[in-house]
């Protein structure tokens, strides 16, 4: 059987025959159907849900390879999945296609921790929190940090080039990858598990698979960088009049601390008010009201560095220079947690406040003030019924514009229309400022039809060429990132 | 005229007609032939020399585009070139092909310096030293540093993913690139000049062109990262018994200084002796003889950081821990220069000592001790007439193994055979240790037939697929990186 047209449904006997062959490779108990498959068939935001032919949970790279080879031979498409925590539906079953969902969670072995090389080789199913804990036990740090730290896995982190709060100092997930192992769309295994800091032998193939959202193959293992463990830190919250002052403060702090700015998160006054109203009852540590706040952390691996003193000196100078209105430095761990609690309560508080249309755009850091001014003005004019709040990563130019409609805005289609209108405004203004419509979440399924609106035809053509060069059979993760002819 | 077979020579009238059409695009004075073309037709090591049809020096991206379009239409291959300082013949005219050499040196405009975004947009013809000076005038640093700093250009730095001494702290050239503009093999311009720290909208296309050595298109401009300017530094030289102690020292210094190790260069006793014998007459600053030396620099943007004190404390502790035998800390700038002069004299001193076969391999940092032991032993056994010296970047696992034969080893073919024998041993041992045969210089023309020896068939297939997807006409830089069917 080799089905040339993926849109023709499998007959029942074809389906059973196929599933029997998959089960022979991975074992019956690792092939899930029906109720057992459901947890994998819905994304965690509950936005997408559709049944696959089955969910396969292979336990080795060789098994992934055999499963993919079988699918390729039979013309059955594959949706790769790791921790299933994606925000754009990149690991969900698309409409109109019968697919095998291949989840790599069982590839969760730590193959090697190489301390002199500051690297670890891990399976695609390893969970971020576990890797961070592992690094910690070896007196090292793995610096990627996201909200889904407890359940997201290496394969997904790599395939979505995950961002988060650590990008400011350590770069995106892409920068953490030294080597990769990938099962290609025809089932062959590409062993690119090198652990090198310098290697210029042909095109850097691993870069293709990082951020490809599973459309070019299935990442099965990776060599990741480790960093010295942090020994000291200091947390503060400051109040500012303008966003350009936040940028100036960041650059000055980076200079005088020698790059020890670990986190630098912006929050608008409107965002803080929502958090205080809906979530954090202990109030704001800041005495003064201000249009903008920054929550920041200085940290270092050097135990002799006086983080609090550096913070005091630097913020004192910033106050004198008129960069900031007010500052609160956490004097102990519980006060630091109180500050970070404001940041971590944003998502939940906004949900309580109303129907949320959130965005994940980025612009050049220098364009942040203009972008935020333009987007806020347009949203106020065109969507007067909505509240607008801002929060995010100043140093990455990645400030999330959150548009909150009243809970009673209407039914599902009214909500969809409102969200679409808000997204369109945010995307248009981002692109007008030289920005991106998806800074860290990827394209997945959610933005597949938006991508061509904001991307040149030359670039779309290059994207399609890359896809078809690596996956000519169009078997890998259909309906994600790109539509194909 | 559309020549399907590039190997059929052009007739004289075809040649003249073609050159006339190119001159119409770029102007007569920017089309060089004969004697005027020669400086571009020989690589700076004098290893490769062959005449092109002509050398074109377009002055704008649009002109590059028009030139490439014309070549594509007529089936004439192109060799892209920037500063012409490459070490593997990547920008030279191959045997058996009539090509147009397209040099981008005139694209030397600085388009924008964006300080709040810590970025600059520059043409592919900008010289590294000029960019470093420009950054400096803006209180910033551009951290890439190579021997050819005074003449290498952005287009070449990007196309070879240049390394150098800054990789330890700042990463390779790849990590400095935020955005790219590329003229594709059919003449279309891909404008990827984004200046974003986070952007997950489809495959990261710029990664394809970084390190592609001009085989996928011509880089015409780039957005590059800037860093805070260094304000303080301290230099030292230490003596060690073993390479694993050098690695342990590096990791400890990175930890206690919070990543402020700017340079960390290894040198073998044999290498130091050659330098003292042939080059540096002022002697070594070290009292003790030891198998290995490290020359290192701590540096920071924070003017308040006491670099010398940190160096003293850290090296004092390393001495107590038995990691190092002896240390000399430069007490002033001239003493620091005396130390670095040892490092900078290596290349010239080795040339005086004999016929040099140098290598550019890398291994995982943890494998350096084993690699150096194995390769030194094999070279001593199999090439007893040669001296062996080691120098390079410990933190990148990129230690250059330098094999020096007596000056009177024989004629050109005897030298070629000796170099080949040395290279083969070094490459085999590198790959056996999980390493690369070209850490920072690229494949170019020199290693094109070696690459498949050390690369899996799966990987070679992927490399060819990428090449043919972007350059189906095989017009860009023939005879470099990959042989095509």
Automatic annotation (TrEMBL), chains A, B:
UniProt cross-references to PROSITE patterns, sorted A to Z: FAD_PCMH
SUPFAM superfamilies in alphabetical order: FAD-binding/transporter-associated domain-like, FAD-linked oxidases, C-terminal domain
Pfam families named among the record's database cross-references: FAD-oxidase_C, FAD_binding_4
UniProt KW keywords: FAD, Flavoprotein
Domain of life, per lineage: Bacteria
Residues annotated as domain FAD-binding PCMH-type: 48-229
Entries under InterPro entries matching the protein: FAD-bd_oxidored_4_C, FAD-bd_PCMH, FAD-bd_PCMH-like_sf, FAD-bd_PCMH_sub1, FAD-bd_PCMH_sub2, FAD-linked_Oxase-like_C, FAD-oxidored/transferase_4, Oxid_FAD_bind_N
Family statement: Belongs to the FAD-binding oxidoreductase/transferase type 4 family.
Protein name per UniProt: FAD-binding oxidoreductase
Organism (species): Tardiphaga alba
């Amino acid at each position: 059987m080799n089905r040339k047209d993926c849109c023709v449904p499998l007959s029942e006997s074809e389906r059973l025959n196929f599933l029997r062959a998959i089960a022979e490779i991975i074992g019956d108990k690792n092939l899930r159907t029906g109720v057992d498959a459901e947890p994998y068939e819905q994304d965690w935001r509950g936005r997408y849900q559709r049944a696959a032919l089955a969910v396969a949970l292979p336990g080795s790279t060789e098994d992934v390879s055999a499963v993919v080879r079988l699918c390729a031979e039979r013309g059955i498409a594959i949706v790769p999945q790791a921790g299933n925590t994606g925000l754009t539906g990149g690991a969900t079953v698309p409409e109109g296609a019968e697919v095998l969902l291949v989840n790599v969670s069982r590839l969760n072995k730590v193959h090697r921790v190489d301390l002199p090389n500051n690297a670890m080789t891990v399976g695609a199913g390893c969970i971020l929190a576990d890797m961070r804990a592992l690094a910690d036990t070896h007196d090292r740090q793995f610096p990627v940090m996201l909200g889904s730290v407890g359940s997201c896995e290496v394969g997904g982190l790599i395939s979505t080039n995950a961002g988060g709060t650590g990008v400011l100092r350590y770069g995106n997930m892409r920068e953490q990858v030294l080597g990769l192992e990938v099962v290609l769309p025809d089932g062959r295994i590409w062993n690119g598990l090198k652990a090198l800091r310098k290697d210029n032998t042909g095109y850097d193939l691993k870069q293709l698979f990082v951020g490809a959202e599973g459309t070019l193959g299935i990442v099965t293992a990776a060599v990741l960088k480790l960093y010295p463990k942090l020994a000291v830190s200091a947390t503060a919250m400051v109040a500012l009049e303008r966003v350009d002052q936040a940028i100036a403060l960041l650059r000055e702090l980076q200079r005088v601390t020698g790059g020890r700015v670990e986190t630098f998160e912006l929050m608008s006054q409107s965002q803080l008010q929502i958090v205080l109203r809906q979530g954090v009852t202990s109030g704001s540590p800041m005495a003064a009201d201000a249009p903008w706040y920054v929550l920041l952390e200085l940290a270092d691996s050097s135990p002799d560095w006086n983080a609090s003193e550096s913070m005091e000196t630097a913020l004192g100078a910033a106050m004198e220079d008129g960069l900031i209105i007010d500052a609160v430095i956490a004097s102990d761990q519980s006060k630091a947690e109180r500050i970070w609690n404001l940041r971590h309560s944003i998502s939940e508080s906004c949900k309580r406040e109303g129907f949320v249309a959130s965005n994940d755009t980025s612009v050049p850091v220098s364009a942040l003030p203009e972008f935020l001014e333009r987007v806020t003005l347009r949203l106020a004019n065109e969507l007067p019924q909505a509240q607008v709040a801002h929060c995010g990563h100043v140093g990455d130019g990645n400030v999330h514009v959150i548009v909150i409609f009243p809970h009673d805005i209407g039914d599902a289609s009214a909500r969809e229309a409102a969200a679409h209108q808000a997204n369109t405004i945010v995307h248009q203004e981002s692109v007008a400022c030289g920005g991106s419509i998806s800074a860290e979440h990827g394209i997945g399924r959610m933005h597949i039809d938006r991508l061509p609106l904001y991307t040149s035809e030359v670039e779309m053509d290059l994207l399609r060429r890359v896809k078809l060069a690596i996956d000519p059979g169009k078997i890998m993760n259909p309906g994600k990132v790109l539509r194909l002819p």
